[in-house]
Specification:
Chain lengths: 235, 99
């Protein structure tokens, strides 16, 4: 039992390394941004370790710097981060029996887009220690990037830091493309979501990005569920 | 002090958004529609987040397109996540040398 926990934990660490690298580059930018908004590198790092959400943190720092109200801050967090509820709900269906309520309270802290994606791609039920491994390495990368970016400012030359901007998206592509290639229904859902999101981006520009992602993905997934329902027991 | 209160409010809000569905939803979902919806959600969310934002992730649509193409090709052949992500960044960096 002990042994399998350890195995799960290190499997999580291994599979979290690409997330940690991507997070480092993204949160590096967040650290720079926060310091420019008048928030110390230390405070920025505290924000990173307590929130672990890129878009939410960037919006939050903007509101704090602009002297916004607490209500505004909370509403913006709910809007931008509401997708985590869908992800948490989706993951709640695939948990191993060893996932006790206490483990759920701890592991919920680390449900981010990328951690969700890696967990959802697991062919086996999720164990707490696997998730802790993924979360630990990812949050370490996230906080280290924030601290480095905040404290040191521009360490990397622009050509390198701009290339780092694509890392997380590259990872998303690597997660979606192989199943979409095997399974036509996933392909249709993925392409529909991308098309809707493109429509919001260029045409319905008054909708915030957080809402655009929520609407596009919910509509595409609902269409998929109607057109290609999954039978019980289908993986 | 104000900063501490704001950070705490932000952290608590974000945590509750994640925790409530994760901790309190214990039963198996019976509805075929809901199960199918939850099955498709990850792919839909990741696609909507990636397209078209990826083209604006590097400061140049041209280098971003090069990175996107590299990622799509490697992902199509089923290479590991980190290889695909690194190839995308490398393609952006190389394309940037020619601009």
């Amino acid at each position: 039992m002990k042994n399998s926990r350890k195995q799960d934990f290190f499997k999580g660490i291994r599979q979290g390394i690409p997330i940690a690298l991507g997070y480092f580059s993204v949160s590096f930018g967040f650290g720079i941004m926060a310091v420019r908004s008048g928030i110390s590198a230390l405070a920025a790092s505290v924000i990173s370790i307590t929130n672990v959400t890129s878009a939410g943190q960037a919006a939050g720092v903007g509101i704090i710097a602009a002297g916004g109200t607490l209500i505004e801050l909370i509403l913006v967090q709910i809007t931008i981060n509401l997708r985590y509820s869908l992800m948490a709900l989706s993951l709640s269906q695939r948990l191993d029996p060893s996932f006790t309520p206490a483990h759920r309270l701890f592991a919920a802290y680390g449900i981010t887009d990328e951690i969700f994606a890696v967990c959802a791609a697991q062919p086996v039920p999720l164990t707490p220690w696997y998730m802790y491994g993924v979360i630990l390495i990812s949050v370490a990368g996230w906080v280290a990037g924030t601290a480095t970016g905040g404290a040191a400012g521009e360490i990397l030359p622009a050509s390198v830091s701009s290339a780092m901007g694509i890392v997380l998206y590259g990872m998303f592509i690597a997660i979606v493309v192989p199943p979409a290639r095997r399974n036509r229904s996933i392909l249709v859902v993925a392409v529909s979501a991308a098309a809707l999101s493109t429509l919001f981006w260029y045409v319905f520009t008054s909708v915030s990005q957080g809402f655009a992602v929520i609407i596009s993905s919910a509509a595409a997934a609902a269409a998929g569920a109607v057109l290609f329902p999954r039978e019980e027991g289908e993986a | 002090m104000r900063l501490a209160v704001y950070i705490a409010a932000m952290a608590l809000t974000t945590y509750l958004i994640r925790m409530i569905p994760f901790a309190f939803f214990r039963r198996r979902i019976r509805s075929r529609f809901v199960r199918s919806f939850l099955y498709y959600i990850p792919y839909a969310v990741l696609s909507a987040m990636t397209i078209p934002a990826i083209f604006y992730s590097t400061g140049s649509i041209v280098t971003a397109a090069a990175g996107t193409a590299a990622a799509l090709i490697l992902a199509y052949f089923g290479l590991p996540l980190i290889a695909v992500a690194a190839a995308a960044a490398a393609a952006v960096f190389i394309a940037g040398l020619f601009l």
